[in-house]
Structure to design on (445 residues):
């Protein structure tokens, strides 16, 4: 009996140890982060391209998109995620973070305390970004208004409420590297950077597997709306016949080629992207068409 | 009761339930028709604003006049309770409309104001029309963002 118990303890410790090792956060190289210095002026365009405000704006109607107090709820198959306060408030937001901590949070989904963030936060896309862009983003976000709204805990069911388990998910699904590969023109490559690394189009427009990881084989082919009725439309494949002009005009104005007007969660995306240079929107359009070929 | 008659009973009750589920209030189709007519006119000016077609002052003014009058159409019988997307199929009208009708009405009034502004300038040249066109699009977007579901 004692032997059996001892055996069980050993197995428990070993598998616990394996779980602990497998789920350990894997931060970026600390030395390269320490030398990053951000430029707030450059960071403004990154902010609009990355769509931070779309999720971190306050839930109240007509809230200011530059006050990132958090509080919006995002229902999913795993429970409800609540966007945290990422305003520069030192106590309730991210005002006390260093640039390096911010880059690790955005590009690896690791908090300054070393905890995993859930991939509702699209670091799965931001991992492809240029760290300099994210350092610029940090510099810009530190110029935004501070807000003292406390972040709310997510409401997740077991086993998804075990944050450490996200490490396992990352080991399975978190990857650097582009999804659309092959020969790309300069414009298509710029669009790929904007779309796959910053604007994270695919996070809503591509279907996910049972564990919530994006299906790279059905890239941009549309998906069920995770937080409500209907579907997020396909922006590639047979049913999608927009031209580059159509896509770029839509991102600039919110008008479809049939002169319907954008709504739902895409309205906030357009509100962000319309701050970008028209050439950047043209690049996204070129990439979308390239991805669908 | 045999297995077969049980099945028959289940099929019958399903058949009886089905028409109730699928019943559509005519107001849904009618208000959708109204929005199609908005687009019919808004799109003419959109095409000119985006350079897809040449600006034509008469055409723009006619479209803006139409949109002005269309947005004056009384809405009181177009939005009966129970015609939201959670209650019936075939509509993208969010239940949130009926949760905050005051705001919905306010946003509709903003569309009316914007349509009036566009009507005043649509025939005065491309740049003037563009300036009046933007606020109409903003009014559409504000309502779609809060009150229109994704298409299925």
């Amino acid at each position: 009996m004692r032997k059996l118990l001892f055996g069980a303890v050993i197995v428990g410790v070993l598998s616990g140890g394996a779980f602990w090792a497998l789920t350990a956060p894997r931060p970026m190289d600390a030395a390269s982060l320490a030398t990053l210095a951000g430029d707030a002026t450059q960071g403004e365009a990154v902010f609009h391209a990355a769509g931070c405000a779309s999720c971190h704006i306050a839930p109240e109607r007509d809230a200011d998109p530059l006050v990132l107090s958090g509080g919006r709820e995002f229902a999913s198959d795993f429970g409800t995620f609540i966007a945290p306060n990422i305003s520069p408030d030192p106590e309730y937001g991210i005002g006390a973070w260093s640039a390096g901590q911010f880059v690790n949070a955005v590009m690896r989904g690791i908090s300054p305390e070393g905890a995993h963030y859930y991939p509702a936060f699209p670091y799965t896309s931001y991992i492809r970004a240029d760290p300099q862009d994210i350092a610029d983003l940090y510099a810009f976000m530190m110029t935004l208004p501070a807000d003292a709204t406390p972040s709310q805990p997510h409401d997740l069911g077991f086993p998804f409420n075990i944050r450490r388990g996200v490490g396992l998910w990352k080991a399975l699904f978190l990857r650097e590297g582009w999804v659309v590969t092959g020969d790309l023109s300069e414009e298509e490559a710029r669009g790929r950077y904007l779309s796959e690394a910053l604007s994270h189009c695919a996070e809503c427009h591509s279907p996910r597997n049972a564990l919530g990881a994006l299906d790279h084989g059905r890239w941009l082919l549309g998906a069920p709306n995770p937080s409500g009725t209907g579907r997020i439309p396909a922006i590639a494949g047979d049913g999608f016949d927009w031209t580059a002009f159509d896509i770029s005009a839509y991102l600039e104005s919110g008008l479809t080629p049939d002169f319907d007007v954008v709504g739902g969660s895409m309205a906030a995306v357009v509100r962000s992207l319309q701050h970008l240079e028209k050439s950047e929107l043209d690049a996204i359009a070129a990439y979308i068409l390239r991805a669908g070929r | 009761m045999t297995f077969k008659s049980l099945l028959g009973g289940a099929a019958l009750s399903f058949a009886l339930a089905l028409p109730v589920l699928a019943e559509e209030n005519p107001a849904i189709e009618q208000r959708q028709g109204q929005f199609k007519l908005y687009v019919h006119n808004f799109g003419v000016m959109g095409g000119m604003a985006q350079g897809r077609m040449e600006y034509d002052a008469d055409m723009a003014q006619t479209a803006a006049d139409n949109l002005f009058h269309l947005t004056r159409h009384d809405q009181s019988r177009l939005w009966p309770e129970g015609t939201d997307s959670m209650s019936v199929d075939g509509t993208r009208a969010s239940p949130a409309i009926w949760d905050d009708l005051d705001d919905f009405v306010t946003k509709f009034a903003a569309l009316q104001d914007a349509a009036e502004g566009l009507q005043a300038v649509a025939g005065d040249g491309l740049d003037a029309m563009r300036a009046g066109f933007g606020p109409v699009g903003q009014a559409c977007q504000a309502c779609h963002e809060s009150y229109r579901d994704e298409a299925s």
Summary: Residues 27-147 of chain B form a domain with the Four Helix Bundle (Hemerythrin (Met), subunit A) fold (CATH 1.20.120.10). Chain B has six helices and no strands. The interface with chain A takes residues 39, 42-43, 46-47, 50, 85-86, 92, 103, 137, 140-141, 143-152 of chain B (CB under 8 Å).
